[in-house]
């Protein structure tokens, strides 16, 4: 297990990645050193694969240790052999092993387990990157973010890389203790409790089944419409439509009659418009 290997902290970031291969090696992690409660956290991990994969196109696995009130928003990956989306692993007993047993999470933290959407065959000595975004919760303080990469096949945790360099036979690699400070939320008038700007927040929980909450902030009274759409642009629900006072507002969305999948929700006012994604998993 490597501690703070090439830990590059940046105030604003976007990129992190993984892929299907043996001999996985995390050679760089880039993430912000501080974020505000209720904001988003985007991180970059870059990987190197020493060995070729010519027979079995296993999907890549990326596990990220985060505070337990954070939620996964979205993820993508790119590399020498392809690109696509990172998706949550919903298997109760993953093929690669139990990450909670291998590296038990500290109090108030959890592992989020992600997979590449497909697997790839590839040559030796290829590089991959992935971009992962989380919705930050309300807990504040210092947290050790951790990363683990492997491939989605049987018992890969037996082949854990214990050196700070690539190993030909290593199938799992880690990079731990990338510290991030979560500060109290800013941008609110403390005397009046009124936000300083318009904001549409990530729904919580996400993914959800079948209900989730969506909140939005208004710095002044405004006519607001909040609508849910399918990826094809079909309107499936109107959650808010009318005059709202300045402040923070939360509405509930019940998707009991909808199929699993990605949905869009959009807020519109005279001076502001914003759209986010959410994932329904049944």
List its traits.
282 residues, mainly beta, Immunoglobulin-like, 2 domains, twelve-stranded mixed β-sheet, four-stranded antiparallel β-sheet, 1 helix, 21 strands, 52% strand, disordered N terminus
Structural features, described:
This protein is mainly β and 282 residues long. The chain folds into two domains: 2-183, Sandwich (Immunoglobulin-like); 188-280, Sandwich (Immunoglobulin-like), CATH 2.60.40.1930. 1% of the residues lie in helices and 52% in strands. It contains one helix and 21 strands. The protein has one helix at residues 99-102; strands at 2-3, 7-9, 24-31, 34-36, 40-49, 60-67, 71-79, 83-88, 109-116, 126-135, 141-151, 173-183, 188-189, 194-195, 199-200, 211-218, 222-230, 235-244, 247-254, 261-268, 273-280. Strands 1, 2, 3, 4, 5, 6, 7, 8, 9, 10, 11 and 12 form a twelve-stranded mixed beta sheet that branches. A four-stranded antiparallel beta sheet has the order 18-17-20-21, with no helix packed on it. A three-stranded antiparallel beta sheet has the order 15-16-19, with no helix packed on it. Strand 17 and strand 18 form a beta hairpin. It is globular. It starts with a strand and ends with a strand. The model is unreliable at 1-23 and 187-192 (pLDDT under 50).
